[in-house]
Amino acid sequence: MAFLEPNGDIDLNRLVDQLKPVLKHINLHRFVWGLTTISAFIAWNRGLAFLYALVAFLLAALVLSYLLSYLNLKNISIKRNLKDIAEAGQSIDISYQLSSPGTRHFLQIKELFEIDLSLTTTFISHHHKLTKIFSSHTIKQRGLYPLEQIELSCGYPLGVFIRKKKVATSLQQLIIVPQMFHISNLPEIESLHTSDGSIRSRHEGSQDEFAGLREYQRGDSLKNIHWPVTAKQISKSLPWQVKTFETHDQPVILIILNQQDIKGKVFEYMLSIAASIAKHATRKGFRVHLSGMQNHTLWSTDIPSNSKNFLYDIQCMASLQPSQGHYSDTVNNALSQHNKSNLAVVFSSNNNINIPTSVNSLAFEFQTTKKNQKLEQPHHSKWRLNTSELNLDKLSEMFR
């Protein structure tokens, strides 16, 4: 037998693993029904009054469980309230408001996501007409999660039978951006400050110059909405338009994501590095252009300095996926479009990216064999990262 050790001892872990396919079908409800059936058969065969009484008691418990669990879930409604964006691995606080005509007992609330996130259920022992409760969940994987239904369950009064009911709620979408790590020091960015602490810029121009229009995003200031254009957009049921500006006395950090050569777990680490650098740069007073190429189309998003809505600024990273094409084309097109950038951050899985000597760059090269090390050249820095040793704690230590 697979769960027996060579010396004849029983390996409990293996035994449990082998019994899991069977154990998952066994619960108290089925056990009580099985006990009732066996007791009824023995009582009928032997004529034992005690077993007849036991059968009657078990049947009464089952009927009571069916009836009261049904009544507890009848005419009950629930509302959910939560912040619609969070960082992967970050605790998400959710508040629920339950309302019903009377008192309810032994309720459980469970969110229904597209994937199994092993979320704990929220238990309510007693509810009277209106109850507001709070729960915290943690989602480790970035992505977009539609929240539409909540599963309510009740095992009142004995827990013998668990009745479940799906309750429709207003459709919400939970945005989970990549998990970030703390950066204490990034010399390539710190060097853009002058000795007196001000920010060095190599471009001339007024402080704010109109750069163009883009679609409105949650968190944008109303004062930046281009109202004449927006009025026309609304009449056509199109998105609002927001004015974008270029501030030439602030250095610009250009982060070019590699969606062509990097895939799998390394792709997630790349996004974490990019988001962490962007957060560090904006807190230091720099603007950030985040760019990449999806389906042969260059995309870009601007993150203002000292952003008060940073998670919303990088919400596009929640849905990014590897794409076809050549990363060299992405780099060339991004540098051409953002030709006033002071520092370009690039990512590769090989050593074939050519950055013009006129552009300061910070490169991250993912490899499978070499140890983590940093190579310094004039105007160019490179981190060689061993993919088998990557984790967020080590990445944070690299930038202390």
Offer a quick outline of the entry.
With about 400 residues, the chain is α/β, with parallel strands linked by helices. The protein has helices at about 10-25, 30-45, 50-75, 185-190, 225-235, 265-285, 310-315, 325-335, 390-400, and strands spanning about 75-80, 85, 90-110, 120-140, 145-155, 165-175, 210-215, 240-245, 250-255, 285-295, 295-305, 345-350, 360-365, 375, 380-385.
Can you tell me about this structure?
The chain is α/β, with parallel strands linked by helices and 400 residues long. It folds into 3 domains: 47 residues, no CATH class; 106 residues, Immunoglobulins (Immunoglobulin-like); 173 residues, Rossmann fold (3-Layer(aba) Sandwich), CATH 3.40.50. Helices cover 28% and strands 33% of the residues. The protein contains 9 helices and 15 strands. It has a 7-stranded mixed sheet, with helices on both faces. The longest helix has 25 residues. The radius of gyration is 30 Å and the shape is elongated. The two termini are 53 Å apart. The relative contact order is 0.09. About 3% of the residues have low confidence.
